[in-house]
Amino acid sequence: MKNQNFFFKLRIFLFVALLSVGCVVGFLTFLRPTVSESEGRPLTTFPTFTLKSFLSGDYTSQVSLWYSDSYPGRDTMLDINGDLKSLYGIHSVSFEGGDVEADTIDPNEEFTLPEFTTRPPEDDPETEEGKETDTGFEEETAPTEGQVINGFYAEGNTGYELYYFNKDLTDRYINVVTQIALDLDGLATVYDMVVPAACCYGLSPEKTADLGASNGFEGINYMYSRLAAYSALLQEEGRLTNPIVTLDVGDALGAHYENEYIFYRTDHHWTGLGAYYASRFFLDKVGRTYPALDYYTEVEVGSFLGSLYRHTQSEILKKNPDTTYAYKTPSVQTITIYKDGEYREAPLIDENVTSSNKYLCFSGGDVAYYEMHNENITDGSKILIIKESYANAFMPMLVDSYEYVYAVDYRFWRDDLASFVRDNEIDTVLFLNYLVCTVDDYSVRSIEKLVK
Questions:
Q1: DSSP 387-423
Q2: What average pLDDT score do residues 216-244 get?
């Protein structure tokens, strides 16, 4: 009896000790990761204390999110969780999420032109000489609330991130693209390419509706029709010279979806081949020349399990990892990036990327600023891409068509956009965004920070 009592107390002691150690480890900030390499996103940062947020309860909620989202060893524990789930048995179809309610897409909805303001760069007080700017990561680069839209579906060996139309966020995305076009009017033509998610091709409209998600093509049509209408009205009022050019890449990608590897199965990104086809669609629209695919050297970077596996923990996806192929041009090998507070060189295509997320082989991964220079082109051609991670595989496909390719990741970059465009004499600006980012609060708020 005494022995049983001793072992009972010992188990309680060990359990409490384990919890205590885990709690202490969780608060050791130097052990906490700042970026999830497997998901390709910044993790939640510790919130700034304000009395208002504390009294409302937001502060404690944000601390809780920070604690769970950036816990040391988080990615490893997700892997272990997937291993445990694989013991439950094999399921060919799984669904997680689905608790997001999509708004109705009404393409015929009446609207009035928002109150846009035109701020010519030369008159903008934010561009005065000596103004302090932050060219790198902000203190708060991670979302304070959910960055990724809930709703991930796995069928067979393929995962999908579902799209849920959100009218408020979509309208805000449309408005900020329009405002930036006004701010850059007379300097550059603004193009907008929203890349359909894989679910737009892999799931039928009926299946999408059954899952409670939205039709991605209808969402893109809503954005493009509204951008066109705003451009026309602003031109009529004499406030906009160059209309916003929308780039509907849906059919160009759809022509290759069934028979070619243009989207990963376990990750939400497109592949290097998918980015190649989209880049050719864009270059045709702007009238720039480009080499054929056989001009490049195809390299196999390695296999990996991506964000869709991380979210679904599907054992079927785990048994069918993706393989990253990249296409190396002989003309440009390195790029300049801004990372960790300094400018540095990085491979345009990193064949030896050490991260488990092999998508990071493209363009130096997710950083604030990128600059690519092709010394074989001397026509002064320049383009700026305003992007998130989807453009990482896209940018290498433009370096043989422009003398300079610049890019800024709106999640991290905080310089003055109009000044940058004017100072570098850039005449082409491309917004390139993954469809889901247009309905993601963190992404839209980040783009809005570009408006000064």
A1: ESGGGGTTGGGTTTT-SEEEEEETTT-BS-HHHHHHH
A2: 96
Burial class of residue 146, CB neighbours in 10 A (0-12, 13-18, 19+): middle
Q: How far, in Å, CA of 285 to CA of 212, rounded?
A: 35
Residues in the chain: 452
What's the token pair of residue 226?
């509204």
* Stronger pLDDT, 140 or 88, i.e. the higher one: 88
Tell the residue number behind the tokens 């390695």, with chain if given.
302
User: What is the phi/psi pair of residue 385, to 5°?
Assistant: -110, 125
pLDDT tens by residue, 349-364: 999 999 999 999 999 9
Question: Do 418 and 124 touch, CB atoms closer than 8 A?
Answer: yes
pLDDT above 50: residue 85? no
Distances 323 to 161, 164, 200, 274, 446 between C-alpha atoms, Å: 19, 28, 22, 14, 31
Q: Pairing mode, if any, of strands 158-161 and 152-155? A: antiparallel
What DSSP letter does each residue of 294-332 carry, written as one string? GGSEEEEEEEE--HHHHHH--HHHHTS-EEEEEEE-SS-
Can you tell me which residue has the tokens 């988080």?
Answer: 74
The answer to whether 218 and 166 are in contact (CB under 8 A) is no
**Minimal CA–CA distance to 153: which of 195, 100, 203?**
203
* Average of per-residue pLDDT across 374-385: 98
Select the more confidently predicted residue: 92 or 252: 252
Query: Taking 50 as the threshold, does the pLDDT of residue 124 lie above it?
Result: no
Instruction: Give, as one character, the DSSP assignment of residue 17.
Output: H
Question: What is the C-alpha radius of gyration for the chain, rounded to an integer number of angstroms?
Answer: 23
Can you give the pTM of this predicted structure?
0.77
Pairing mode, strands 382-387 and 428-434:
parallel
pLDDT recorded at residue 147: 26
Q: How far is CA 409 from the centre of its chain?
A: 9
Predicted confidence at residue 151, as pLDDT, reads: 83
Residue 148 phi, psi (nearest 5): -105, 135
Structure confidence by residue, pLDDT tens digits, 323-337? 999 999 999 999 999
Quote the tokens at residue 154: 């796995």
Residue 81 vs residues 39, 311, 321: alpha-carbon distances, Å: 16, 11, 17
- Apex 41 CA angle, 38 and 43, nearest 5: 100
